[in-house]
Write a structure and sequence with these properties.
With 398 residues, the chain is of the alpha/beta class. Helix content is 41%, strand content 15%. The chain has a seven-stranded mixed beta sheet, sandwiched between helices. Strands 1-11-12-10-9 form a five-stranded mixed beta sheet.
Length: 398
């Protein structure tokens, strides 16, 4: 007998929990893609996507995941042989660099490891060393989903401005958008990307590239952009099919409309605050458990922790045991460790992540933490009991 019957909870850092309203919106027959209500509905998505990103700029929608958004964004503004600067803080910063390299782009990599955010002064030094200003763009991951570190995008814009460097500032917000505070225009990002499957609460399969007029001008000067990735017609379509370079992802769009309605109703400020409070409750529990045992948050400074995903270590072998027990015995799926380079634990058996992004509330967070504390006790993993109570105190304090 297990306690896993009932609705399972998947607490991984994406795909995130999908609201019933999104699922219900998608559960419908195929529509007419050539005329009718679908066209007006898709038009209505654009201002709401701008609202989520904090921009008055342009929006291009793609049928792909975040990796596709990496390629789409680069293809429009960086040509083969040109150079980008990538200050990486985890697997996804390195991944964007790899995609750039695959496009024939030269990559200047600053690997920060996976336990600290992007250092603006290291970026400054790289820009100063670029005497010929060959660097075309700085690729910065706002929240790296693997390490759960959150970097300061506005600080990078200040460095670029102070150094008088013309490089575009490009922000990967796949894990952070609609979870962590992000203000594209106010913070000076020229390009920002995200995917449908995290804060936007829609299944994987759509990605979005936001860009300002500076980036639009760079695109106009490009010698060539492949037809599918070209954001020009997607952002300013003359015909409906140009939004997607072909057939629309119809049911994703219905789900996205429902999700954006929910986001508008709650409001971005409230969404950011909700994520911050739930994250703080999680951190309080882990820090309490870790007083007596191997439990440790990957990012030491709360100011640099993501409000959407938390990475942690619990001792070699213990994460695999805990994840197995939580799933099989309690119906909660925890995320695997990702991008870990630990010679003493080469399979990352002691690392795991919790996703707390999108459609998540207090009882989901407290339930997840309660399952984890129960698993720690059952599996006899050293810890200080009472972490859930500490989380409750944080939530009660408001």
């Amino acid at each position: 007998m297990t306690l896993s019957q009932g609705r399972a909870h998947v607490a991984i850092p994406g795909p995130s929990v999908m609201p019933d309203a999104v699922l219900q919106a998608m559960h419908r027959p195929a529509p007419d893609i050539y005329s009718g209500d679908l066209h007006g509905m898709v038009d209505s998505l654009v201002p709401d996507l701008r609202y989520v990103a904090g921009t008055k700029g342009h929006v291009a929608m793609y049928i792909c995941n975040g990796h596709g958004a990496w390629e789409a964004s680069l293809s429009n503004v960086v040509a083969p042989g040109e150079t980008v600067l990538v200050p990486a803080c985890g697997r996804f910063g390195l991944g964007w660099a790899e995609v750039a390299g695959g496009l024939g782009i030269e990559v200047d990599l600053i690997d920060h490891g996976r336990q600290r955010p992007i250092d603006p002064e290291l970026v400054r030094a790289a820009l100063r060393a670029d005497k010929g200003q060959k660097i075309k763009a700085v690729l910065a991951v706002h929240t790296d989903t693997s390490s759960s570190v959150r970097s300061d995008i506005a600080a990078l814009r200040r460095v670029l401005d102070e150094e008088g460097h013309p490089a575009l500032l490009m922000a990967d917000c796949v894990a952070s958008m609609a979870c962590d505070e992000f203000r594209m225009d106010d913070w000076g990002a020229d390009v920002a990307i995200t995917g449908s499957q995290k804060g936007l609460m829609v299944p994987p399969g759509m990605a979005f590239v936001f860009f300002n007029d500076k980036a639009k001008a760079v695109r106009a000067a490009m010698p060539r952009v492949t037809n599918y990735w070209d954001w020009t017609q997607r952002a300013e379509p003359e015909m409906f099919y140009q939004y997607f370079g072909g057939t629309a992802p119809t049911h994703h769009l219905y789900g996205l409309r429902a999700a954006l309605d929910m986001i508008r109703a709650e409001g971005m400020e409230a969404i950011w605050n909700r994520h911050a409070r739930l994250a703080a409750a999680l951190w309080a529990a882990v820090e309490h458990w870790g007083q007596d045992g191997p439990f440790k948050l990957n990012i030491a400074d709360p100011a640099h922790r993501s409000h959407a995903v938390t990475a942690m270590a619990i001792g070699k072998g213990n994460a695999d045991r805990l994840r197995k027990w939580s799933s099989e015995e309690a119906g909660v799926t925890l995320g695997v460790g990702l991008g870990v380079t630990d010679p003493d634990d080469p399979t990352a058996s002691g690392y795991f992540r919790i996703g707390h992004m999108g459609h998540v509330n207090a009882h989901m967070m407290l339930g997840t933490l309660g399952v984890i504390e129960t698993g720690l006790k059952v599996l006899k993993i050293p810890h200080t009991p009472g972490g859930v109570a500490q989380a409750a105190e944080v939530l009660a304090a408001g």
